[in-house]
Amino acid sequence: MKPVAGQQSQLRIIAGTWRSRRFGFNEQPGLRPTPDRVRETLFNWLSGHVEGARCVDPFAGSGALTLEALSRGAAWTLACDTSREVVNTLRGHLQTLGCDRAEVRQQDALTLLATAPAAPFDLAFLDPPFRQDLLAPACAALENNGWLSADALIYTESECRPSELASPANWSLHREKRAGQVWYCLWQRNA
Predict the structure, then answer these.
(1) Listed residue (109, 86, 110, 102) closest to 31, CA to CA
(2) Is 46 inside a domain boundary?
(3) CATH number for the domain that contains residue 16
(4) Rg of the Cα trace of the chain?
(5) What are phi and psi of 69, to 5 degrees?
(6) Is 26 a residue whose pLDDT tops 90?
(7) Rounded distance, CA 115 to CA 113, Å?
(8) 72 occurs within a structural domain
(9) CB proximity list for 70: less than 8 A, separation 6 or greater
(10) CA 165, CA 103: separation in Å to the nearest integer?
(11) Which backbone phi and psi does 177 adopt, to 5 degrees?
């Protein structure tokens, strides 16, 4: 059954300080929260890399990846989404948690990534809406505009195989898996 816009859904933080906390969010077109099983696999892959990391989540949506990273000890997370409602909901969740280690901006992801950040990020989460050709330009912008630390890890979630993604030449595929129609991958940046 397809979610209806405005219908209330929930996400659950899997591990860390806020383990098992649940948060509601309203369904919106293109909003696909990363499922628990996929998030659990991703953060197993990232074991040892999240604690103290600076993370960027340009297509934040429900905020599942941002909240999971912060729960597991990320030092700072910058999250971004175009929807005012999504941004306000995520800000509310962070306020409920008493978390001051994140910034949430209402902005287009590619506009955000078009300018250089104040400091590079160790982890990037790229989970754009499907079938809008946003992933390849986001990958290029991360690489070309100074968003990534020398050995950053980049998570991508898309409807296409990793071999079909035009990733930057200095990224190597570290892990990949498929869940239904979704390919999720972890890339390693090689400076």
Answers:
(1) 86
(2) yes
(3) 3.40.50.150
(4) 15
(5) -65, -45
(6) no
(7) 5
(8) yes
(9) 16, 18, 77, 94, 97, 99, 101, 102
(10) 29
(11) -160, 160
